[in-house]
Amino acid sequence: MKKKYITITIILLILISLFLVITINKKEKSINTSSEKHKLDVNPISKETAINVLRAEYGDYVSTKVEDIKIVEHVYVVDVYMDIKDSEEDTESHEHSHRQSLGIHKIDMFTGELKKPE
After folding, report:
1. Is 87:70 a contact under the CB 8 Å cutoff?
2. What is the mean pLDDT of residues 58-87?
C-alpha cells in the first residue's frame, strides 16, 4: 500500500513539473516574439533626415548629398563636406568656394544620434 502512494506521488510531481516547464516556455516565446515584432515596427530615419541632422549640427553650409550616404548595419556612414565661400573685393565681386571635409560621421538609423569622428 505504501509503495502505491509513493509511486502516485512521484507521478504527480513529474506531471506538475512538466506543466510548469511548458507554461514557462510559452511565456518566454511570447516575450521574445513581441520584442522581435517591436524591432520590426520601428522605422529608420530617411537619408534626407540624416542630412537634416548634419545641418542642425553644422549649419546650412553642409554640402553632403543623399548619394554620399552609405548604410553599414544600422548606421548611416557619411563623409561630411562643407562649402566655405571666400569673396574677393576687386572691381567685380567674385565668389570662390572651397569644399572642406569634416571627417566621417555616423548617424544611428533608429535614434538619429550623431557620432562625430574622434
Report:
1. no
2. 87
